[in-house]
Each structure stands twice: as structure tokens, then as C-alpha cells.
Amino acid sequence: MVEDKGNVIVLFKLLRHMHNDWPEYLKLFRKELGIKEMSLSQELLEKQPKATDFEESMAAIYKIQVVYDLDASNMTRGILNGKSYNVKNWGADECLIMGLLNQLMKHYDLSEQWFRLALIYFRGHPRPKELDIKLFKLSNILELLVEANKGLGHYSKARQYANELLSLQPNHNYINNQLLKLNDLDKKPPKSTKSNEKMYQLQKAICTKEYPKISLEEKFKLSKKINLRHYPNFLTKNETEALKMVSRPQLNRDENLSWNCSCKIAELKGSEHEIVNIINKKIRDISGVGKNVNEVIEVINYGISGNYNPDDREMSKRDHKANVLIFLNNVKQGGETVFPSLNIKLKPRMGTMLLWLNSEKRVWHHQCPLIVGNMWMATKRLY
């Protein structure tokens, strides 16, 4: 500017710039910035996962890993129950996080598996120093393996990991103290630890059993023996989508159901939704059962590891003539319906209806946990 004092054109441009643009700058300075963004961030914060979501997610992963005997090593490569999925392979850091989450939930059996896998991947990493900087050190994994094996009552194994850690860090105060306790505990018989796996023994026995591969015609013939009826393509795709659409706003958890139900349910009435009327009429026409008015249809929805088994208790009441189960979508893996007395396992097929009569011979069915995808179905009792 000192060099351009005599330049009238430059001074004119400067004055015009200050006259025209400066008021806009002042408006910008006075404006309260970030109010809209802060409000939006608060709205998004309310939609973020809560502690309950975290606990349920971990319980879901634990459940399918236990019920289907999923191998942790296979899971890191995208292999679930023998089926491969195109996903990025996990490394030491992901295995460590899975171990930490299971350890937090006191699932020591699985946390030990994930920590051991993290140790294998750490040692096999071409540049382990990168992991030191990135997230954790070898000593961290060894310390966690000490805790996991201690939680399992495997004191001798915990002592082995403790000694390996002390060979790296002889002055590790915590592990030195733990080793004294482990040496004492190792002289005693290990405590019998109660595994959460017992909760899922029934599902494990039913869902991992090998069932004979027979055609639908043969299944239908067998089903007549216990009054089970099978109706493929009972609902069209448009009808299933319409039923799901009206149910979404009403889906809620029912805390009064059996422990074996992890799902959301919507109770729909024909007086409120035309699609429910249409389906009720189709059920009555094709089955010849349920002439007495019962307009309610329950729509059930659940994700990974979910299932709906309210009648798993042996002494469930049978005050109705028949049960209806309609699959509203196809699923990628898991979610089969098993009839143990028939030795039949049925994969969900969109639009298929199952109907069984409650005669003197008890018709018991069980739904296996979902491994991949999202499950939709409808149920109804006929009186």
C-alpha cells in the first residue's frame, strides 16, 4: 500500500471494497455460529447406541458363537457356520477388542479364545512394532490372558502367561503380585466355573443337530402325522411388505415373554389395518379353522441371534385350536424352525405359512437363532 499511495485507481478500489463488503463482514462477525450444528449434534447423540445396546450386541455375538460352536479363527476370516462371506479379515487389534468386550461381560471362555488369537496374530505380524504404536503391546495381551485364564480357573495356564510377561518386564508389580496368588491357587483343585453356555444348551442341541435332507413333498407327508400343514407362497411379496410396513411403528419389546425370546412384537388388529383383514380371511378360507373371531396378528422382528420361542416351557397352556406361523422374508443363515418330533428343520421362505393343530399329541417347535440378516414373521392363534 505504501508503494500505491499515488495510484488513484487502487485507492478507489480499496474504498469501494470497504464500502460494499465491510458491512457483510460485520454481519458475519455478529452472527452466532454453530448453533444449528450444535443442535444437530445433540439430536444425533440421542440416536447413538446406549449401554443397553452394547450389552445386547455382545450377548448376541456370544449367543450365536456358543449355540453354533463358531470358531473364532474362522470368524476373523468371515466364515460363519461353514459359510464364507466376503469381508475384510480381522487382525490382532480386532481380536483384542473382541476379547476385551467378552472379558467385560465376564465371558472368560470366549475372551480367552480371542486373546489367544490376538497373540497368534501379533506374533505373526510382519511389523509388530506398528502394533505397539497403534494400540497395544505384547505385554498387554499376556496380562489379559492371565486374567482370562484366572477367571476360568485355569491357574496353571495363567501362571505360564504371567511368567512369560515377567521375562519381558521383570518389575511388573501387578503381575508379580498375581503370580504369588496363582502359585497358591495352583496347589488347589481348580474351581468349577459355571459357564453361561448352559443357558443355550437346548438351542445348541436342537439347532446343531444333523437333520435328514428330504424333499418338501416328503416333509408334507410326514407333517400329516401330527397335523402340521405347509402352505408355500401363501402370501405374495406385496402382502408381506404391506404387513411389515404397518407393523414397524408398533414394534416393541415384551418383557413378559420367556427368556428365550429376543425380539420386538407388534399386535395388529383387522379393525385398524386392511392388510390384516385380508390375511385373516385367507387363513380362514384355506385352513377351515378359526371361524370364531380373533382379528389379532402378531408381527415379530429380530436381528442377529434373535429368536421367538415363547412356548419352550413344557407346561405352556393350550387353550386354542391351532397355531399359524408365516415367514415374511428370506434369511441368509440361521433362523430355521425345527419340529423335533418330526425330525424336520424348515428354512424360512418368504410367504410360506405353517399351521398346526393342538390335538392330544403335542406339537412343539423351536426357532433357531439368526446368524446373518434380519428376520420377519407373523404368528396367530386360532380359537
Characteristic key phrases:
383 residues; TPR-like_helical_dom_sf; 3 domains; six-stranded antiparallel beta sheet; Serine Threonine Protein Phosphatase 5, Tetratricopeptide repeat; single chain; iron; L-ascorbic acid binding; dioxygenase; Jelly Rolls; 14 helices; alpha+beta
Overall tally of domains: 3
Q: Which stretches are low in confidence, meaning pLDDT under 50 for 5 or more residues running? A: none
Strand content: 5-15%
The average pLDDT is 81
Question: Which CATH architecture of the largest domain is right?
Answer: Sandwich
Helix content: 40-55%
Using only C-alpha atoms, the radius of gyration works out to: 31 Å
N-to-C series of helices and strands: HHHHEEHHHHHHHHEHEHEEEEEEEEE
**Sheet with most strands:** 6 strands, antiparallel
Q: Which overall shape is indicated by the principal axes computed on the Cα atoms?
A: flat
Q: What name does the CATH topology of the largest domain carry?
A: Jelly Rolls
Name of the CATH homologous superfamily of the largest domain = q2cbj1_9rhob like domain
Number of strands: 13
Strand order of the largest sheet: 3-10-6-13-5-4
Question: Can you offer a commentary on this structure?
Answer:
InterPro entries: P4H_N, P4HA-like, Pro_4_hyd_alph, TPR-like_helical_dom_sf. Keywords: Dioxygenase, Iron, Metal-binding, Oxidoreductase, Vitamin C. Residues 226-383 form the Prolyl 4-hydroxylase alpha subunit domain. This protein folds into three domains: 8-44, no CATH class; 51-185, Alpha Horseshoe (Serine Threonine Protein Phosphatase 5, Tetratricopeptide repeat), CATH 1.25.40.10; 211-382, q2cbj1_9rhob like domain (Jelly Rolls), CATH 2.60.120. It contains 14 helices and 13 strands. Strand 8 and strand 9 form a beta hairpin. Strands 3-10-6-13-5-4 form a six-stranded antiparallel sheet. The protein is flat, with a radius of gyration of 31 Å. The model has no long low-confidence stretch (mean pLDDT 81). By secondary structure, the protein is α+β, with helices and mostly antiparallel strands.
